[in-house]
Design brief:
The chain is α+β, with helices and mostly antiparallel strands. The chain has 3 domains: 95 residues, Pseudouridine synthase, CATH 3.30.2350; 133 residues, Pseudouridine synthase (2-Layer Sandwich); 67 residues, PUA domain (Archaeosine Trna-guanine Transglycosylase, Chain: A, domain 4), CATH 2.30.130. It is built from 9 helices and 17 strands. Strands 1, 2, 3, 4, 7, 10, 11, 12 and 13 form a 9-stranded mixed sheet that branches. Strands 14-15-16-17 form a 4-stranded mixed sheet. Strands 5-6 form a two-stranded antiparallel sheet. The protein is elongated and about 70 Å long.
Length: 308
């Protein structure tokens, strides 16, 4: 176990997942490398997709609820003129169209029409579950299940590059958005069909691709090397949340689950901008101690979770 995990009993690994590995396999591998018993992540990436996979170790797994639903960013490549059952290049081809010679402005208009809030149907090949079984397993058994459409938001599409039949773009979206479905829907709008050719997640849970490290880079270090430099402290989570630094006496109270009054919390907040994110309670050394509900009740502030 690394020094950081020993000190905080938790840590965050911002992993740059490679193509071909499942998210569960990547987390399991990282778990063994760091010799930690408890681990999780903040959102699955398909095996063919690459990019940011945020792994939570030890007590940091308590943060998953608060990190899973944040906005995400992807760099996607759409291939026009081909459709598959999985909506990406790994599936069986179900339709092809040779006529994809669209004007750039027509492609851009089609792509940009998907900005905003909409109802989107999850793919039948996905990690969503039906009666406890992942949909992709049911689909492979010839028993595909269609889940109801759900509300998603695509807040921004930028960087459109066209090299037919390929169209590249960057998309910022809400959690639960399927880029495979987006690519398929763009193809349908143009009337030629489409699939997702490549996908890289460049940001999730406030962590970015430039901060990520590959499993190979961790695996290749010398035996016995402390891997703490690869981990981020739990205090780095929830970018933009209001923070309060507390004394050792208050830390002891927090560790016992003793409630903090409105007066001491609001005094600690000072002029900090408040939002709907949890309030982060930090030690003077910057260690994350607990998360508070930003909305007080008559008795004071409730803990979402205690990490010390």
């Amino acid at each position: 176990m690394t020094d950081l995990l020993k000190a905080e009993k938790g840590g965050i690994l911002v992993l740059n997942k490679s193509e071909g590995m499942s998210s569960a396999w990547a987390v399991g591998k990282a778990k063994k490398l760091f010799n930690i018993k408890k681990a999780g992540h903040t959102g699955t990436l398909d095996p063919m997709a690459t990019g940011v996979l945020v792994c939570l170790f030890g007590k940091a797994t308590k943060l998953a609820t608060f990190l899973t639903f944040g906005e995400k960013e992807y760099e996607a490549t759409l291939r026009l003129g081909k459709e598959t059952d999985t909506l990406d290049r790994t599936g069986t081809v179900t339709a092809e169209c040779e006529n994809v010679d669209f004007a750039d402005e027509d492609i851009i208009e089609a792509v940009m029409s998907f900005e905003g809030t909409m109802e989107q149907k999850p793919p039948v090949y996905s990690a969503l579950k039906h009666n406890g079984v992942p949909l992709y397993k049911l689909a492979r058994m010839g028993k595909p299940v269609e889940k109801p459409a759900r509300t998603v938001t695509i807040s921004q599409i930028t960087g459109i590059e066209i090299d037919l039949p390929l169209v590249k773009f960057t998309v910022r979206c809400s959690a639960g958005t399927y880029i495979r479905t987006l690519c398929s829907d763009i193809g349908k709008k143009l009337g030629c069909g489409g699939l997702m050719e490549d996908l890289q997640r460049t940001e999730t849970s406030g962590f970015r691709i430039k901060e990520a490290i590959s499993l190979d880079a961790i695996t290749d270090v010398d035996s016995g090397t402390d891997l703490s430099s690869s981990l981020r402290p739990m205090s780095d989570a929830l970018e933009g949340a209001a923070e309060i630094k507390v004394s050792q006496g208050v830390t002891d109270r927090i560790s016992k689950g003793m409630r903090l009054s409105k007066i001491e919390v609001e005094k600690g907040l000072g002029k900090a901008d408040q939002n709907d994110l949890p309030i982060k309670l930090l030690s003077y050394e910057g260690r994350l101690l607990a998360l508070l509900d930003p909305e007080p009740n008559n008795d004071g502030y409730q803990y979402f979770c205690v990490l010390c």
